[in-house]
Amino acid sequence: xxxxxxxxxxxxxxxxxxxxxxxxxxxxxxxxxxxxxxxxxxxxxxxxxxxxxxxxxxxxxxxxxxxxxxxxxxxxxxxxxxxxxxxxxxxxxxxxxxxxxxxxxxxxxxxxxxxxxxxxxxxxxxxxxxxxxxxxxxxxxxxxxxxxxxxxxxxxxxxxxxxxxxxxxxxxxxxxxxxxxxxxxxxxxxxxxxxxxxxxxxxxxxxxxxxxxxxxxxxxxxxxxxxxxxxxxxxxxxxxxxxxxxxxxxxxxxxxxxxxxxxxxxxxxxxxxxxxxxxxxxxxxxxxxxxxxxxxxxxxxxxxxxxxxxxxxxxxxxxxxxxxxxxxxxxxxxxxxxxxxxxxxxxxxxxxxxxxxxxxxxxxxxxxxxxxxxxxxxxxxxxxxxxxxxxxxxxxxxxxxxx
Length: 403
Ligand SMILES: Cc1cc2nc3c(=O)[nH]c(=O)nc-3n(C[C@H](O)[C@H](O)[C@H](O)COP(=O)(O)OP(=O)(O)OC[C@H]3O[C@@H](n4cnc5c(N)ncnc54)[C@H](O)[C@@H]3O)c2cc1C
What we know:
Bound molecules: flavin-adenine dinucleotide
Low-confidence stretches: none
Strand content: 15-25%
CATH superfamily: FAD/NAD(P)-binding domain
Order of helices and strands: EEHEEHEEHEEEEEEEEEHEEEHHHHHH
Radius of gyration: 21 Å
């Protein structure tokens, strides 16, 4: 169990105030928004129900170049240039393991440290408060947010609260198990052999048919879990089974719902970023990179409002369009997710993996995949629309390997 640092009892004083920008949620998306406002002179309040970095929300693996582009490399625990995929035997065919050499590397990182590093790059006030809902707009156009410590208001309000999309008025539609959500659960046992281990995935119906299972080593621990694209399928038993098969303890459970369809990124004057906007990529359930990416995009638009170079309405429209421009990629990956769910049990899945098992294909596919939200966007550009594609180094050239 994480140590609970959140203010309790008498320390939890009433909170009712007005700010230039209110960012609800202090994980990847919210901290990325706040970072872009550093030095703008804006009075920025960030709220979260927990202290920053207190509750890990994922297996914490992201493209290394993204972490480096944001100056977060000190949080890296282990770096991988290969992805290992396991398939069980099928009919006459025995089990098979694929090893794909990626054109870029993935790194696992320490969640509290990464959040702390990201927060240090910001320039904001932080308070712990549970966000309850949005209430009607105040005179003057401010958005009013009700929390368990009082009402907060600001003209610029960001919902970076994760899949619940708390500040939406249409919340019923996004509640599980009927909503378009996947579910993921993992354990985080200590593992002294982690540094010798690979980044591994299992496309094995023994654990889950519509989904996949993983083992992500992180220097002194390993994050082992199962994700189901079908919200009705529970993943506790298969997580225990996978941990047993790998010979690791079932310590430190951590799980959550994962949105797998893009949602509107703006609604009634509120900006939605990260999982609240469905910015987690379908098929892979990779949502950290995209939370950072759309967080930066949103923060850059807000900054132009603070600078007086655009209105709030223009920022809403530009950020909303920026998010919508990525719909094709999210739709495409959602189709792949649907196909994987349908064929995972069939020999067709083996044929597809055999066809993909070529260096040229892996380089091509993973370069396009990274360019849905490229790390170049974090390094340069002042406008949300400034997206320069990432270019793969020549085959065989060294890749970013920080750790
Ligand atoms: C088991 C699992 C493993 C995963 N592994 C990976 C991975 O390795 N790599 C990857 O890229 N993606 C992974 N994901 C997906 C990834 O976790 C999410 O896409 C990502 O965390 C989204 O970031 P976010 O900032 O939008 O939301 P979150 O990280 O969910 O943060 C939301 C924040 O809002 C706060 N909050 C929520 N409700 C309230 C409230 N009412 N009041 C106040 N505060 C509130 C929370 O405390 C939290 O700090 C995984 C998901 C799961 C479930």
